[in-house]
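Quality-control log, excerpt.
Job 1 of 2 completed; input and output follow.
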Amino acid sequence: MEHYGRYDVIVVGAGVSGVCAAVAASRQGASCLLLEGSGLLGGLLSGGRLNRPNGIVQPGVHQELLRRARTYGGAKDEPQRWPWGTYSGMFDPEVMQRVIIDVIEESNIAVLLTAQFTYVIRTDDSIPGVFFHTKRGLGLAEANTTIDSSGDADVAALAGAKFAMGLASNTLQPITNYFRILNVDIHAVMQDCIANQDDLMNLFPDDGAERTAKEYALSFFANGFTKRISKAQSEGFNWIVPRDSIVIKGGMMEGEINLNATRFHGNALDPKVRTRASIELRKQAYCVYDFLKQYVAGFENSVLYDIAPTLGVRETRRIEGDYTLTEHDVLNEARFDDAIGLSNCPVDIHQPDGHKLIMASVKSGYGIPFRTLLPKDINGMIVAGRCISADSIAFSSVRNTPACALTAEAAGVAAALAAAQKSSVRQVSVPEIQSLLRERGIVLGTSHADKVLAA
């Protein structure tokens, strides 16, 4: 076994939550090790090609990443407003990977990629270390506090935390896989969309103004094509995707389209299911591409360029925390004394047993309580990201990246304070955490006077 050192904070998982948590902790003065099982930093933001925040990105690390991406021409400020909420804009995943690397290195964070977390050391009062596997075998690192940003609550579950999965029927929102098509005539696609708006749920921009292909980059968005999918099926097209709509988004290059159109039902914690999903989702991507070339103008000369290497896993474990965020909280603009961020991310449900996508507004947003980050009866660790404590409907909002980033920023600050005070994150003063978050410009959600505006 190889010992990789002792740190103030270990962060397990280097998706958006892990990156934001590690940077937040480091900037608060903590030494930090960031562990990631894959070879990528950024998770869905980079390897998953999830190129649009589903909500407003608040100040903090996440907003800084977007701001830096804009300096490379890889993101847009232009907000998009929909009946269920306002989004901060789109970005290019590879540019996002670039700026994540910049910020991680500037923050002096130790990074270990292709290091698969395997087990946790637990005592009554702390989580003094974690085990992981690398190409050199078993590794161990120690820390005052461990942040579980695995998305799947891997650390919390192995530490003995209670958790929930799915709805009452024990079903999970489906897995997806983004992909990218090049050489698309986006002007022709827009004209097709305008002529067939009754076949769309959403279209942006929808003012009908003439634009160049360059102006559609990182802006164009359309969701629908349901009638044409049905028509294609009636004509014998072999539509193998278990959903009845396609989401297409303009990429950074002229003629680039990013797609969210695939769906696989199953538990991503099961390696056999995950393997099957990886294969089936690629087959679905080929099917969607063939459909677009045949039934939507502008795709005739297009090329299927790549399929994201990182699967879009929407739902697995959610911890049982000191407080569980509820559907009522999310839909009724709840405020909490211990809130660490105001989220306007919509309720976004891909039906576990159906073909539909359900979106619902959370209006002015809701505060995320710090207590949702603390696994019940577990000391020495904190969670960040989509595995925080929430019921199935509230989860459908907090799983979105802007909310994940808020929980991560708070987790990183709390873990750094705990290390400085040689205490547990449970012993850190919540008002002290909130004060530091306010200094970073984050709107907390403690009062109904709190409002979040687009960047």
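Job 2 of 2 completed; input and output follow.
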Amino acid sequence: MRRLAIPFTLIAMLALPQAASAATRQIIRGAGFGHGIGMSQYGAYGYAKHGFDYKQILAHYYTGTDLSKATGDVRVLLETGNRTATFTGATDGGGHALNPRKTYRVKLSGLSRVILYDPKGKQLGHFDQPLDITSSSGLLRLNGRAMNGVNAGHYRGTLEFRPSPFSGLAVVNVASLDDYVKGVVPGEMPTSWAPAALQAQAVAARSYALATDAGGPVFDQYPDTRSQVYKGADAEQPSSNAAVDSTASQVLRYQGEVIAAYFFSTSGGETEDIQNVFYGAKPEPYLVGVKDPYDNISPKHRWQIRTTTARLQRRLGSWVKGKLRGIKVTQRGVSPRI
């Protein structure tokens, strides 16, 4: 998320001597897991367990925001790099009637043309524009392993085949906002968690999807931690679907604009201002550090690493000019993060 970003450990405290031999043992003590911006997921779970509803949870982590409704589609990149792909479950492909029980193949020809083949290998048509595949049942299966790690996964909405901006054929799932979020919530939060936490996650994921664009005109979101973890229809669970349905179309806005509602795993007790974590980010009044009193249910609320000076020097590599003697903290954010 982006984790909504790829999670990385945030050190809260370091205990190192001023001078140390290579064999000296070092203990690094820290707190939290993830980038620290926006909503702590374990903190949200803690708030839910203490009786807070999702609106109160969101208001705590995203300062000064309001809830409103929004609609639209989300375009998720599922595959890229291959020149062929196959699918099942379709009833229409570029205006051609298809049999949902049979498997069809799409191939990239040259740099810009997409060709659709029937199960026997006969060419059904070629397309210089993206080829849209739909199903009257509402579910399509993309064969093979997608970028989200799902094999032969089912997806709601449309599968779009077109030349990739990277290489080969791009397979993009075009899903309604709420159908997309139904595939995100179980990928980002345990579905056994309290309803209020799942509802807060649904609103945050919905907001983030509308406020960010990872792929320009071809797609909006990656299906993994570069954007949000999206597993499609196969990941859906009754509890997470109920959270999406009960918050249908709800997003967070600040002064009328949908916000990039960052979230992450564990705060260690306090979240952080965005400009202190993402280099070059400008301050945002809705992404400021707040106390996180119920985050202590996380197994990463407090942690420590035991190592040696020699191992630290090897890990730091060229960052160290000469011989590592120790580490001194020179500045912290609004939370204890270094």
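Post-run check on job 2. Confidence is low (pLDDT under 50) at residues 2-20.
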